[in-house]
């Protein structure tokens, strides 16, 4: 199932490495990734695909010190609407 | 003040009196600042030893453990200890020297991307890029390692920043985000408890991390709820609690595993449904509604869904549970099971029987003593046959399962608690993984005791080869081990070898009464296995026992 997320994080390369490592390790494939700098933060729009429930990823991302905010939109629900 | 001086000064200001480490080129300014400083440094003989000593220091006290290493191989040698601390939620600060800023990225001598390497085995990590950031980073790192769910934090400091003049900037921790109890979830939990006919408390390592043993025992004493413990939680439930059933899981007791399989409400207190605990997850406590208490929201629902989730410090969430008294019939059933499946020590042979030896040691050593384990059969026998009155007295590598943990962890525990009896129980495989730390015991005159259970095998792997690989004993024969008593003697540590059951009592007397370090090398039957055992893919009530194998 695909999920679309928006993530605000510290504008450091290592912050991106850190959260992408978590995405991979927790079993989610990256299918879309866009990074913009905004107001001193990196804003990331990304889509991930996995059989696993998305809360298993968002709960891990929310623990990262560099991550300021994780917002989830269910892509399939969006498309259905 | 230089960056190196500031580093040592900040550690001292945060109450760090002892650190463990090993010097090298890129961390020389910090070692220079240590010279004559009030922070005492313990030189280990390998950086992994320093990492595990810091873990032992932290786990035996709930204080921050600190270790130092140089760049490149110094830092890579720390990685296993960081991973161990990550899996077991240990507050650890690792400070590594890095090549000078201008050389980073040039494949300089002893340059490794330590920050990149740290990502999967730390709670957080930093490489200091500007001298003016050093103070803030160090203070934040010290705070992060100990806050919320504790864990390892690494700070990589380039040599030029260690040598630069740096400003001190006080850093005030932002108001720590601690999740507030969701009162709706508390109400659901209390409703489930009020309806429970067969509840069980499943107690994990979070109790030690939260320093919540008192709150746990108050809850248990009021509810009289049967309780089981994970490996890491051993000591959290006091062993004389009337309804304590011991450890659950792959090598847990039968009474503990059966109770969990039969329960209708499972109160998970600071535990994470680890696969060694659950066996076949789909069959684990299949009839139970789960109430999950944890400070880490990511653990709730990760492996097993919860009907009620109390995400908060256990010191807050445990008292929020109402204390309904557990139905007597359920308590009686479990008591009977506990008696029926009690451990037996009437071993018929003349050889040393490890469970008996450990049970006797447990009875005769001081109750305030610390037992550090390595990994394998001896580790499970310690968990089964020794009793602990506090989780800080049982240090076992739980999540990572790291052979080589025990000896350096015991060194750290002995440094932290110099007046307490500290012993490492190891196997002939594990002890050789960090045997060089005998030199650290000698250098510091530490009275660490050592018990080696020697079956001349990698015993747990051998056991699985016997049971599940048709007796194909691939690379598990260690019959060419050194003479461990002679080996210890080279480091000035006296001891004895025992081979017969009738030598056990005198050997324990020598261990317990020795003022300095002492080693007992106990030769045991190479065919002895750990029972019971939940085989791969089975449910926890489908245990193999010695008779049924």
TrEMBL record, chain A:
Annotated keywords: Transferase
Q: Which Gene3D superfamilies match?
A: 3.30.70.260
Q: Does the keyword Transferase apply?
A: yes
The answer to keyword Transferase applying to this record is yes
Q: Name one Pfam family in it.
A: ACT_5
Q: What's its EC? A: 2.2.1.6
**A molecular function GO annotation:** acetolactate synthase activity
NCBIfam families assigned to the protein according to its UniProt record, in alphabetical order? PRK11152.1 (NF008362)
Name of the protein this chain belongs to: Acetolactate synthase 2 small subunit
Q: Which organism is it from?
A: Pseudoalteromonas fuliginea
From TrEMBL, chain B:
EC number(s) on file: 2.2.1.6
Thiamine pyrophosphate enzyme TPP-binding domain span: 374-521
Q: Which GO terms describe its molecular function?
A: acetolactate synthase activity; magnesium ion binding; thiamine pyrophosphate binding
Enzyme class name: transferase
One Pfam match, given by its short name, reads TPP_enzyme_M
Question: Which parts of the sequence belong to the Thiamine pyrophosphate enzyme central domain?
Answer: 188-321
Q: Which reaction does it catalyse?
A: 2 pyruvate + H(+) = (2S)-2-acetolactate + CO2
Keyword set for this entry? Amino-acid biosynthesis, Branched-chain amino acid biosynthesis, FAD, Flavoprotein, Magnesium, Metal-binding, Thiamine pyrophosphate, Transferase
- Protein name from the UniProt record: Acetolactate synthase
